[in-house]
Amino acid sequence: MSPIRRSGTDGEVHSGAASPARRRWLACGAAVAAGGLLPGAARAQRYPSHTVRIIAPQAPGGPTDTVARLVAHHFAERWKESVVVENHGGAAGTIGGRLVARSAPDGHTLLVGSNAAIASAAIQTEGAGYDPLRDWAPVGRIVRVGYVLALRPGLGVSTVRELVALARARAEPLTIATVGVGSNSARAVVQFARVAGIPVTEVPYRGGAPALQAVITEHVDGTVCDVALALPFLAAGKVRIAAGCGRSRLALLPDVPTFAEAGFPGVVAEPWYGIVAPAGTAPSTVAEIAAALRAMHADPEVGRRFKALGYEPIVEAPEEFAAAIAAEVAQARVGFDGAPRRP
Fold it and tell me: Tens digits of per-residue pLDDT, 40-76?
């Protein structure tokens, strides 16, 4: 059983020296010409020269959207240019990823997405439409985030062991909401079903926010999502957190065990968010975007905001980010459930 399922002359010849009046007239004309041409040339070379679009490949209100809007705010302040966020959710982020990969490589369309949208989902999703090793100009990662297993209270369980016992006792499989094949949520669900040896029906949504809403309204049994997304609903008693998906406990939930601590080692999802531009973007433009990202990280208020969300900032060079993408792609090709994907 399988556990789951982008010449200015007029031609007139003059002889002899020009008169003083004519020399003044020529000098004035040259100055006007230079004044008209140089600013245009400067505009052509300046980045950004017009509105920058940041594509967030999930639905509004989710963690990707939150990070993208924070980036957009700081970039707009630095560049004194409009930076807008557009949400293009679905297919584990590959719809938004494809849009950016096929955009003009001028730095005015960027992708702010998770490791799934940038790398692994494109490997695991047939027809994604882009190659994460060939179609990106990596800029840098932004943060590392914590994922948790959130359950609907009506399920009547609070721990992973209780959930597994329930799954084995009832006739129908557990229903777990994800963001689609190749997503970080799907990765954890695939691993959990395999390790626990239980049937799970994966229910895809266009983003983490609608997936969690499905849990709150008791349309599905649970979801794997960003801890920052789940915390307000945990406090309100609308969800229960059974486990964290990292290798260590989350600072925001020190009493919640990891899957390994709960007795189910091998269930690990430690997503990150980053920025990429289309392949072929000029190195100078990539360098400017990377500089804007470093400046954002240097803002203490940004650090405080990330900490409140349970995010760990990542500061790195574009080439380091490229290596991280390659590592993610290699893991995706092996298969997060142990089954090889693509040669």
Answer: 444 447 899 999 999 999 889 888 999 999 999 999 9
pLDDT above 90: residue 339: no
Helix (H, G, I), strand (E, B) or coil at 247: coil
Predicted confidence (pLDDT) at residue 195 exceeds the cutoff of 80: yes
Provide CB contacts within 8 A for 315, sequence distance 6+.
140, 294, 297
Place of tokens 């649970």: 222
- Token output for 32: 């006007």
Q: Is 263 strand, coil or helix?
A: coil
HSE-CB at 93 with a 13 A cutoff on CA atoms is: 32
Q: Rounded to whole angstroms, how far apart are CA atoms 135 and 129?
A: 10
- Strand bridging mode 136-144 / 312-313: antiparallel
Torsions phi, psi for 97 (to 5 deg): -60, -45
Token pair of 198 as six digits: 């239980």
319, 320, 324, 327: CA torsion to nearest 10? 80
Handedness of CA 61, 64, 70, 73 (dihedral sign): negative
The vertex-329 CA angle with 327 and 333, nearest 5°, equals 120
Helices (DSSP H) in 125-281: which residue ranges?
Answer: 160-169, 184-196, 208-216, 227-235
Q: 209: closest CA among 66, 94, 4? A: 66
In the chain, how many H helices and how many E strands?
Answer: 12, 11
pTM: 0.80
Mean pLDDT of the chain: 86
- Per-residue model confidence (pLDDT) at position 335: 66
Strands (E) in the chain, as ranges, are 52-56, 83-87, 109-114, 136-144, 147-151, 174-178, 200-204, 222-226, 240-244, 272-278, 312-313
